[in-house]
Amino acid sequence: MHAYRSHTCAALTAANVGETVRLSGWVHRVRDHGGVLFIDLRDHFGVTQVLCDGDSAAFAELEKVRSEWCIRIDGTVKARAPELVNSKLPTGEIEIYVRELEVLGAADELPLMVFGDQEYPEETRLRYRYLDLRREAMQQNMTLRSDVVASMRRRMWDQGFREYQTPIITASSPEGARDFLVPSRLHPGKFYALPQAPQQFKQLIMVSGFDKYFQIAPCFRDEDPRADRSPTDFYQLDLEMSFVEQQDVFDTIQPVLTGVFEEFGGGRKVDQDWPQISYKDAALWYGSDKPDLRNPIKMQVVSDHFRGSGFAIFAKLLEQEGTEIRAIPAPTGGSRKFCDRMNAFAQKEGLPGMGYIFWRDQGEGMEAAGPLAKNIGPERTEAIRQQLGLGVGDAAFFLGGKPKAFEKVAGKARDVIGNELNLTEKDRFAFAWIVDFPIYEQDEESGAIDFEHNPFSMPQGGMEALQGNPLDVRGYQYDLACNGYELVSGAIRNHKPEIMLKAFELAGYGEDEVKSRFGALFNAFHYGAPPHGGCAAGIDRIVMLLADEANIREVMMFPMNQRAEDLMMDAPSDPTSDQMMELGLRIIPQD
């Protein structure tokens, strides 16, 4: 017999009754029934009930074991009495009578319990992650993650892609976040960087003639943490293709993600029709470039109804250049109580409030109610109602000013309204491509032009587009949104060196700086670069959605905490004096 097990803790059934078997695993829980000990023995695969009484030579030793001790038992498979069968377990028809026991690893008093549903502070869970990972939910999440990655790989190979690995130690490159720098011992005073993404390398792979590349790629970014973002590192399904247009990339990644969500989505509906929405329309309709389309609410511009109206706040606001009024329809939200609640929400978000109108039945017909309705009169309120397609029992909320100042709050309000009024369809994955991103933005104070999004994107219209107003330039850049999260980001790349120089020139980067920072890519484009494009899908975020988790750390094996600390491994740590001297570095204390 094998030194540790003849079967896993999920393998034995009634067909094994009478056999002598060996199991190894962890003590999930212990129950003492007056001279008879029952133990649920757990391994990665499942749970088997084992029992022992005073007639067994192992009884005295088994009395000593406690939760999470790692043990090996030898015993005989017995059938449970019909009334004691546990139909919830694959092994629920049998139990093992223990005849021999070996303690493989005793456990000290536990800082957190593995059995049960107790909640523990995240700091405790991360400090003792190896215990936290033993919990059933975490075992399921990590297994799901592994299976999703394997499925992605199979689907990419099936489409003719090959996987290539790119360097982990490389040069610093602006990708929209801070680099993690690595000091060089052999070149004192110089630094490598951990790649924020394989962006330049995968483009160089296309220039090298490989046509279709993918990689399950680690990426490193020194970012401020959020619930849906790691502050240090993450993994993505990275892909690139030659001789393609934007739609070719969409047609490649859609069946991969559709298949993954159908395979692991637990029966939830997976939308097959993925609309393409411009960045401008997404901001207008949803207040976000990653809209949750399970929520049917679309915001609309209603400025004309407030110009010259009796509501002075909005009327005066509209006299200023670049301002507008937007309405958030709220079907079934037509009660003063709900409207007041949403007004309080806006105040918590830092706004003075949020205007509203709601429509009610007064017996002799419909009436528009609320402070706004009184100020602008029945004709304007009726025009608003008709534009928004609302009726009795419905409401609308209003925000005004320069769109960039209130869009984010409007988007949050739309989400809250959809959830509170049960308009958002929960058991569904709703996808949308967000396209036509602006390449440039202007600093309001300095007036300087800089890149708003990926600087490596091909501008729509090529060189000609770069001759006009930079703020009008749109890129062949796209994101995929699902249920309010960005899952994919990508672009058709700028592969022409003259367009690349012009694009960076508009953002204030001279030719020397482009050659210095992106020399390999710039030089490669002079040697027959093919048109190419691709995208990257965030694996951690995809698994988070599939696992129905709200926090990305629930689907990462060993994540950092919110302060980018690894409490288990005590990182970041202080370097030794010898290390600092070898690298030619010293730490300057900060006040």
Question: What descriptive keywords fit this protein?
Answer:
17 helices; about 600 residues; about 25% strand; 24 strands; alpha+beta
Instruction: Indicate the structural class.
Output: alpha+beta
The backbone outline, from C-alpha atoms, is globular
Number of helices: 17
As laid out across the biggest beta sheet, the strand order is: 6-9-10-24-23-22-19-12
Q: What is the CA-CA span between the terminal residues?
A: 65 Å
Q: Main β-sheet, in a few words?
A: 8 strands, mixed
Strand content: 15-25%
Number of strands: 24
Mean pLDDT: 94
Provide the gyration radius in Å.
30 Å
Query: What percent of the residues sit in helical stretches (DSSP H or I)?
Result: 25-40%
Q: Which regions are unreliable across 5 or more consecutive residues at pLDDT < 50?
A: none
Can you give a write-up of this model?
- By secondary structure, this protein is α+β, with helices and mostly antiparallel strands.
- It has 17 helices and 24 strands.
- An 8-stranded mixed sheet has the order 6-9-10-24-23-22-19-12, sandwiched between helices.
- Helix 4 (136-158) packs antiparallel against helix 6 and helix 4 crosses helix 16 (539-546).
- The longest helix has 23 residues, at 136-158.
- The radius of gyration is 30 Å and the shape is globular.
- 36% of the residues are buried.
- The model has no long low-confidence stretch (mean pLDDT 94).
